[in-house]
Amino acid sequence: MTAAEKQKLSCFLDLAGDYFSCGYKITQRDYRFEDDQSALQAAPEITENDSGDSLEKIAREIGVCANCYLAANRTNTVPGEGVTEPLVMVIGEGPGADEDAQGRPFVGKAGQLLDKMLASISLSRNSNCFIANMVKCRPPGNRNPYPEETAACVHFLHRQIKLLKPKFILCAGNVSAQAMLNTTERVGKLHGTFTDIETGGLTIPLFVTYHPSALLHSAEYKRPAWEDLKRLRARLDGQS
Ligand code: URA
Fold first, then answer.
1. pTM, whole model, 2 decimals?
2. Is residue 184 assigned to a domain?
């Protein structure tokens, strides 16, 4: 088998393995082989950090986590998905019924709207975003996660941030904005604002907007959400 054939086969097996074993859909990765010197030179390891942590390890730990009440009722854990060097990491609340069934974030109605909102400013989980949630298991009846559930889960998110090193974080809705900013202010006040946060030795600008579910329920949030997105795009483009 040639190096190129090995590369294709390994890529296929790897992506299938990532997807089915731990729930991640990894869309960027480098593959290296002993007999392919050019790939060896060009291929940094991008999912594992110096301390041996990796997205796959985190997803495996999430898969067996029983640190809070949410574990008892889940069908699948939902670690998150997207590219491994994201421009933007989107943080929602927690999986809903569709996400719990599929083990993937934001795949229901709110997720379809989120994808459209992101696409409107040239962002996508397939090319430049990673999508995650504050909690990795579904809160029953789609209620907001309780503070003790968020507290039990948040270390996974911070490990993901440390590995992914997103250039920006986008919090969608009250739950993630309040938890990440350690505030009780609501999204009505926080939306459209940038705040630098410190995590994993990084300083990352965090932007807040409305949760897509809010837009589905109340059309009045569509205009301010669109203004938020344009503001985020301008900042991504270095214009503000
Ligand atoms: N709402 C969220 O906050 N996250 C999801 O993954 C789906 C819906």
1. 0.82
2. yes
Rounded to the nearest angstrom, the distance between the alpha carbon of 116 and the centre of ligand 1 is: 14
Distance 43 CA to ligand 1 centre (A): 33
What pLDDT is stored for residue 48 in this prediction? 63
* 22, part of any domain: no
In short, whether 96's Cβ falls inside 6 Å of ligand 1 is yes
State in Å: Cα 60 to ligand 1 middle: 20
Mean pLDDT of 146-157: 97
Per-residue pLDDT at 163: 97
Domain extent at residue 53: 29-236
Alpha-helical segments (H) within the chain = 3-17, 37-42, 55-64, 97-102, 109-119, 147-164, 174-181, 187-190, 212-217, 222-236
Task: Say which CATH number the domain at 49 has.
Answer: 3.40.470.10
Report the distance separating Cα 18 and Cα 41, nearest Å: 24
Residue 5: inside a domain: no
pLDDT digits (tens, 9 = 90+) for 168-214: 999 999 999 999 999 999 999 999 999 999 998 999 999 999 999 99
